[in-house]
């Protein structure tokens, strides 16, 4: 006779398995992570695992879905705030993502260290695709509001969210590479200046894509960059 599991117990154990998978992806890489690793971490049997997930691929899909849901929640209040104009919403969108990263600096630094390894290529691409599918419509909604307000002038608003996110992903990849290179680069000031100028270049590109007024979006500064440099160094000291 099959064992009956209460919905809350099922959700809790499923979440525990996802927590283990997320930690293992960050420490071993997705390609090196096996189902046996999950079983050992959570201390469950293969049969128990397959009660929650049909396969390793199904586990990855569920992990990506959870990341999507968690990252979307704090953005929705900004999108739906009737008091904000389009520029304020767009800047609020960016600021919220920055605050989420800053609140978990130590975890973000650890993630960056392994995120660009070949062993995480599959999960990295899947996360990028999921983020694009999730956030592009939100950004497009902001862009349409900006067109109605006369703030933005763009010929292809339906593609605006996708273009903005492509720029943000490119900027994020460049920033990660520059920050990590500080561990082997003696000239800190040069890297700080490059990160600041890179951020300014991408923000200017987004403004031009949207036809927004120049300097309508915030640029980062050296002080903000140095906060992340300190986080990188602290992580190195404890590695």
From TrEMBL:
The ranges the UniProt entry gives for DNA binding are: 34-53
Q: Which Pfam families match?
A: TetR_C_39, TetR_N
Question: Source organism's superkingdom?
Answer: Bacteria
For this protein, the record's SUPFAM superfamilies field holds: Homeodomain-like
What are the protein's UniProt keywords?
A: DNA-binding, Transcription, Transcription regulation
Residues of the HTH tetR-type domain: 11-71
Query: Does the keyword Transcription belong to this entry?
Result: yes
Q: Does the keyword DNA-binding apply?
A: yes
Q: What is this protein called?
A: TetR family transcriptional regulator
Organism of this sequence = Dictyobacter formicarum
């Amino acid at each position: 006779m099959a064992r009956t599991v209460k919905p809350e117990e099922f959700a809790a154990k499923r979440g525990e398995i996802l927590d283990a998978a997320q930690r293992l992806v960050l420490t071993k890489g997705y390609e090196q992570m096996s189902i046996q690793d999950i079983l050992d971490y959570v201390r469950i049997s293969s049969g128990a695992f397959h009660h929650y997930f049909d396969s390793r691929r199904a586990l990855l899909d569920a992990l990506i879905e959870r990341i999507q849901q968690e990252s979307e929640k704090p953005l929705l209040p900004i999108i739906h705030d009737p008091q904000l104009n389009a520029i304020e919403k767009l800047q609020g969108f960016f600021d919220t993502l920055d605050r989420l990263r800053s609140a978990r600096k130590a975890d973000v630094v650890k993630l960056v260290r392994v995120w660009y390894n070949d062993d995480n290529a599959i999960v990295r691409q899947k996360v990028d695709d999921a983020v694009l599918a999730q956030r592009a419509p939100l950004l497009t909604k902001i862009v349409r509001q900006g067109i109605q307000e006369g703030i933005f002038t763009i010929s292809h608003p339906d593609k605006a969210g996708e273009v903005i996110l492509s720029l943000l992903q490119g900027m994020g990849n460049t920033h990660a590479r520059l920050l990590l290179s500080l561990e082997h680069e003696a000239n800190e000031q040069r890297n700080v200046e490059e990160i600041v100028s890179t951020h300014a270049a991408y923000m200017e590109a987004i403004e031009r894509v949207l036809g927004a007024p120049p300097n309508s979006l915030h640029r980062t500064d050296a002080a903000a960059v140095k906060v992340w440099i300190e986080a990188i160094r602290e992580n190195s000291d404890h590695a």
